[in-house]
Amino acid sequence: MGDTNQNANEARPAGISDFDVVVVGAGFAGMYLLHRLRGLGLSVRVIEAGSDVGGTWYWNRYPGARCDVESMQYSYQFSEELQQEWEWTERYATQSEILRYVDHVAERFDLRRDIQFDTRVTAATFDDATSRWVIETDDGARLRAPYCIMATGCLSSPNKPQFEGQEDFAGPIYHTGNWPHEGVDFTGQRVAVIGTGSSAIQSIPVIAEQAAQLTVFQRTPNYAVPAHNGPLDPAKVREIKADYAGFRARAKQTPTGNLFEVGGPSAMAVSAEERAREYEARWQAGGLPFLAAFADIMFDPEANQTIADFVRDKIRAIVDDPAVADLLAPKNIIGCKRICVDTGYYETFNRDNVALVDISETPIARFTADGVSVDGRVYEVDAIVSATGFDAMTGALLNIDIRGAGGAALRDKWRDGPKAYLGLALASFPNLFMVTGPGSPSVISNMLPAIEQHVNWITDCIGYMRDQGLGRIEAQIDAEEAWVAHVGEVADLSLRSTCSSWYVGANIPGKPRVYMPYIGGVPVYAQKCNQVAADGYEGFALS
Ligand code: NA7
What we know:
- The structure is a single chain.
- The chain is of the alpha/beta class and 543 residues long.
- It is 31% helix and 17% strand.
- Strand 20 and strand 21 form a beta hairpin.
- The longest helix is centred in the last third of the chain and has 21 residues, at 447-467.
- The site of ligand NA7 has 21 residues, from helix 5.
């Protein structure tokens, strides 16, 4: 139906190009969508702002960037050949190794010829009369398709707070989520890092080794657990690959889609000694499984306090200066913000060339020509690294002017917070799908299987529509509202929704406070999606 023979990166004539599906974004989601939709025989055009595939891993090239989900689980499972042939080298893959993987996938499935790079989608408008989406890009082109799929990522719109005097600063200002591709050499420089989230915690130890002086500006401390990264054990890899499908299936039965052992049901039901033993063993093993020491840690504040105290004690044992240790030790619920997985983070504050500045009470006043001013003092630096995170989950979607049936604007629909049916579709926006949108497990689960589950569901849905001779599918408002209410109710059961984090949009001034991901667990969620499909797309109007 569409003009499949046109190479995506050749100069295109003015006017409008027709496809069966337009996909926005060529990260893990867009790439797999392209592969699956081609499998249906559809013509697909993927539009990507970057110059190559990889999405979040294409942009986040800051020093020390690494995935905090283990490599053997943070990868595609749709192709048995692919998962057998690819060899990860480390327990946690570096950003560059993930890009090599992504490149391998793009080559293996010949994806790039249908991806238009260096192009940003500015608007997507549904034309009621023809039931087609018209997608506009920043190069002035227009594309048209019955289906539009937003594979725009959850952490893809960098949060760049504007500091007074920013233009006066004489040196470069980098954002971790938009790092120069040629890399940055901080040798001999005085560097400021603003923020102490996951990106900062990964980059600070690496920058500290290179820079002459590093000053870290911390508003809120975060909990970090050691990664204990290292080469993958070949015997362990062989064991997983001997039954990779079984390994993946077991992972899908866990709440986060990430396979690791959950400890006993209740931290408070065991003795203090037993708790300490369990926490110590998990600290020594490292990584995200630390918080799975007991099943009630994210539900019972008392249980949470025991493991938070354990980490605070660890920080005090690692950091030499008690005043610095005190500042680095978080006071709030552990796991409310996503815990960080670090390599030598707390140890870095024992270095002579590293200083911590607490900005919790007195924020950064301004940038000056030669540094960062706080409370009347200027910290002189040559470069500033803004590790200030992202306008998570909704940012990338709201950056596009999306208009559905009758001209309804997504920016209006989401004024008081994101509302979506299953995090997949939107009432009033027919034939539009989102991959890992708000109201789906997405960021609180393992992103790769979450993406694959959504892509499979969306592709099956489009295949069903075609087979049934149907042209229009739209989430019904009552189904959407019921799902949004359910997402909110489940969020309230967990301690995760009790603090200010990017999960609730608290990091973006003026963003409505709504707990965005679905916390009910991957198995429950997947079952709901399957049941909706099996019941002829219950909660959707099809015509
Ligand atoms: P995060 O986790 O949102 O961290 C951003 C950090 O920047 C955090 O410490 C913020 O402090 C700080 N921040 C943000 N704005 C400011 C201003 N205006 N002044 C000072 N400090 C500020 O983003 P990351 O990139 O580290 O990680 C995002 C996710 O990527 C992570 O969860 C993993 O899933 C991977 P705050 O806590 O808001 O006080």
